[in-house]
Amino acid sequence: MYNKLQYISQGNTVEEQLYNIHQALDNGCDWIQMRFKNQNALEVFALAEAVKFLCEEYLAVFVINDNVHLAQQLNADGVHLGLSDMNVAEARVLLGKTKIIGGTANTFDDVLQKTAENCDYIGLGPFQFTTTKQNLSPILGLEGYRTIIEKMKMKKIQIPIYAIGGITLENVKSLMETGIYGIAVSGLITQSEKPSQLITQLNDNLYVTI
Ligand SMILES: Cc1ncc(COP(=O)(O)OP(=O)(O)O)c(N)n1
Ligand SMILES: Cc1nc(C(=O)O)sc1CCOP(=O)(O)O
Ligand SMILES: [Mg+2]
Question: CATH assignment of 5-206?
Answer without folding.
Answer: 3.20.20.70
